[in-house]
Amino acid sequence: MERIPEFLIWYAVFLLHIACHEGAHALAAHWGGDDTAYRGGQVSLNPLPHIRREPFGTVLFPILTFFMSGWMMGWASTPYDPRWGARYPRRQAAMAAAGPASNLVLAVIALGIMRVLLGTGYFAVPQQFDLSHLVVPAAGEETFGAALALFLSVALSLNVLLGLFNLLPIPPLDGSGIVQGLAPASIAGNLQRLAFNPAFRILGLLLAWRVFDPIARFAFRGMLVALYYPGYTLS
User: Fold this and answer.
1) pLDDT-based confidence at 18, cuts 50/70/90?
2) For 140-150, how does the pLDDT look when each residue is reduced to its tens digit (9 = 90+)?
3) pLDDT for 211 beyond 70
4) Which residues, including other chains, have CB under 8 Å from residue 76's CB and lie 6 or more apart?
5) What is the pLDDT of residue 142?
6) pLDDT tens digits for 102-125?
7) Tell me, what DSSP letter sits at residue 124?
8) Cis peptide bond N-terminal to 172, omega within 30
């Protein structure tokens, strides 16, 4: 029960991540001429359309991963017309890239705010780093400062990690969609068939997770360096 407040902040950041990620996909597709997601109400920062489309990936799986591993994973999806993607592969690549790009923008915003508050002395360096505690309030256990530090730490961590994870060129991740839009037609067709194959979608996610572990460790080091912690150590 003592982890419920932390879970609520993680889930709020997760929903913001999902809404921005999927909303960016839908907006890029709409600008590119495919209104499939637009007609489904997904050109929006409201997370409800994405929750209704993928309730397991946006509700149950994030709860399970948080209480089992200490951080949160999940997914949603944005519908698009494959015929539109085949006709305009570059636009499909832009649509695929828009989701991770939106998350990296959110991460930069969180990083900037944290750097400013560290510089003013409102935040301080924690005794031990983890994804939820990249900064702590300098005033001790002050409630608003602690909540803000947790929110910004999670916003930076989650958006960097899931943004990079989605860029892996493995179906059904967004990186595969980018490659699919830029590759020759023969390669693009094979990637599309794999992305729409339910069995390979699961296999691809498992493979991506195994590949991602060293990337996640590198990204965590990068976040700490970006926050000016030159003498940090990782457990």
Assistant:
1) very high
2) 667 899 999 99
3) yes
4) 18, 21, 22, 50, 51, 53, 54, 57, 58
5) 76
6) 999 999 999 999 999 999 999 998
7) E
8) yes
**Residue 130, SS3?**
strand
Coil, strand, or helix at residue 2? Answer: coil
| The three-state (H, E, C) secondary structure of 188-220, written as one string | HHHHHHHHCCHHHHHHHHHHHHHHHHHHHHHHH
Q: Is the Cβ–Cβ distance between 219 and 190 less than 8 Å?
A: no
Measured distance CA(168)–CA(9) in Å, rounded: 27
Cβ–Cβ < 8 Å for 57, 65: no
Residue 62, judged by CB atoms within 10 A of its CB (0-12, 13-18, 19+), counts as buried
Which pTM value belongs to this model?
0.87
Neighbours of 43 (CB within 10 A): 22
Q: Which DSSP symbol is given to 9?
A: H
The two three-digit tokens of residue 134, written as one number: 């990249």
Q: Are 28 and 87 in contact (CB under 8 A)?
A: no
Residue 200 is predicted with a pLDDT of: 66
Residues 90, 88, 163, CA angle at the centre, nearest 5°?
Answer: 40
Q: DSSP readout, 149-180?
A: HHHHHHHHHHHHHHHHHHTSSSTTSHHHHHHH
For the residues 67-87, what does the mean pLDDT come to? 88
Q: How far is CA 47 from CA 43, 52, 53, 144, 229, in A?
A: 10, 9, 10, 25, 34
**In whole angstroms, what is the distance from residue 223 CA to residue 90 CA?**
31
Helical (H) or strand (E) element with 137: strand 136-137
